[in-house]
Amino acid sequence: MPEDAPNAEPSNSATLSNSNPVPGYDVEPVPPGQTKAGVDLAGHKGLIDQLSQVLGAENVKTDDESRAFFAEDTFRSFETPLAAISPISTEDLSRAASACHDARVALVPRGGGMSYTDGYLHTRVDSITVDTQKMDRILEINEEDMYVTVECGCTWAELNDALKEKDLRTPYWGPLSGFQSRVGGALSQNSVFFGSGFYGSAVEQVIGMDVVLADGTILPVGSHALEGGLPFMKHYGPDLMGPFLADSGALGIKATATLRVIRRPEHRRHFAYAFDTYADLATALSSLGREGLATEAMGFDKNLQSARVSEGSGNIFGDVGTMFKVIRESGLADGLQIAIAGRRYLNDVFYGLHASVEDHTKGGVEDKLREAKAVAKKCGGRPLPASITKIVHAEPFLPPDSILGPQGERWIPIHCIVPHSKAVVALDAVTAVFEKYAEAKEKHGIRNGFLLVGVANYGFIIEPVWFWPDARLKMYEKVMRREHLEKLPIHEADEEGRATVKAMRDELTQIFADMGMVSMQLGKLYRYDQSRKPEAWGMLKKIKAVVDPNGLMNPGALKL
């Protein structure tokens, strides 16, 4: 942490050999399933009692099991929080933040808990998790002025269902994890998937927010700052909302947000193509993006395809109920085509492109589909059954069972967003790291793959992914469906294998920074500080000092 940042000293100063440490924090992350839960709470009894009075005792968790759960993300844990609080309104959140500020106890906001980049991990013992999931109301759907205002603990699935009743949706309408992921989490971390091929990422849809600062101040930004008017337009003078978007919760906690809405397109079609090289796949994905043809476009390499549609538990082709949902969504013909094609057609596909186009008219969507197919063919693609995107759209938001692999393996990704001109160079770099660790990967049963996702017309995500047999985290028991978890094999701990995965992730985050790539879900993992020009980094530290002078808001996030 920079020398002039407040509270730079960690509460525990054990030595850590870590190629990518959280600034000001050098404690060895604890093994999966273990947490430092033995913190003496007696010294904070006054604060805990005060929070119980403000929020209700049922919304303040201090038992070891709850604290251990809130200490983990999908990869590891650092410190165990003193408690987890669950405010049910902006006002309650404000009062709780004020109490913690007076006690000099840090706050770490948490949404749906799908972070894999240390986003809500605790770097201080004297800190509290703010679980926002009970702040989940949809406050207003304005069909005339075309916006929706929600509390930020609302899931993307809940928001989409409510808007669908009025034939509306947000342009970007959620990540694949939208059954669990919250609106506030996506605005803090940024995210892409549904609608991103044309409309971009989550933060590009926001026009206003109420943010609770470390001292409890409720700060209206964007369209919410307008006195006596409707929150229909973000820009009225300088935009003060920008610093609070994609900030990983480093500057404040998102309480409410207003997003644009659009009329839900009436027609959607799907297509898929196979490619022999990732260069051809990347070229096709870039061409679709530049032409603005696909609302979703994703590419897999063979390894990731096989992991996600294998014979193992939970594969997307193995659920009869899913076939009925496809029939209900797309018609009997599509359901029968998927059943006939099965999964075997992917066996010889080294790189697959799977995409969707949509429009308000049947003629419009057919025109887009014809043009998109021509683009894919020109880039060397061979047509495939469009099963994957049909299945995904039949039930877009599923329980987060895929945070374990089909054979019970641990799963973890990282990513970068690349401009079209740098896509193949970046994929070459990712592949080189995979190959560099080939011997260690074979020893520990580590499988690699990558996912590509189009982001508007300016680039796409490259998401390297790891699967490896290792001990489970405790969080899986609360997040995943029990009936699914019980079907999966249980693996012994493999600390060396986990260290290999960590080393590969760390190496790639450095490569991404060196190549000038950008990322979302920055948390405390990515080298955001290295990516900033000195003047920009200095200004961000000044903003942090203004809104959080005591360094109590998610210490370590963004490397602040």
Structure description:
With 560 residues, the chain is an alpha+beta fold. Among the domains are: 138-263, Uridine Diphospho-n-acetylenolpyruvylglucosamine Reductase, domain 3 (2-Layer Sandwich), CATH 3.30.465; 267-398, Alpha-Beta Plaits (2-Layer Sandwich). It contains 19 helices and 19 strands. It has helices at 45-55, 64-69, 90-102, 156-164, 183-189, 196-199, 278-291, 302-308, 320-330, 332-341, 362-378, 387-394, 423-436, 438-444, 475-479, 482-485, 495-514, 528-531, 534-547, and strands spanning 60-61, 83-85, 106-110, 127-131, 138-142, 147-151, 168-169, 206-212, 218-222, 253-260, 262-263, 267-275, 296-301, 351-359, 382-384, 410-413, 416-418, 447-455, 459-468. Strands 12, 13, 14, 15, 16, 17, 18 and 19 form an eight-stranded antiparallel β-sheet that branches. Strand 8 and strand 9 (218-222) form a beta hairpin.
Strand content: 15-25%
Q: Give the integer mean of the pLDDT values.
A: 88
Quaternary state of this entry equals single chain
The tally of helices reads 19
Q: What is the first-to-last residue Cα distance?
A: 6 Å
Largest sheet, in brief, is: 8 strands, antiparallel
CATH architecture of the domain at 267-398: 2-Layer Sandwich
Cα Rg: 23 Å
Shape: globular
CATH topology group of the domain at 267-398 = Alpha-Beta Plaits
Overall helicity: 25-40%
* Contiguous uncertain segments of 5+ residues: 1-20, 24-28, 30-34, 338-342
Number of strands: 19
Assign the structural class, choosing from mainly alpha, mainly beta, alpha/beta, alpha+beta, or little secondary structure: alpha+beta
CATH classification, class level of the domain at 267-398: Alpha Beta
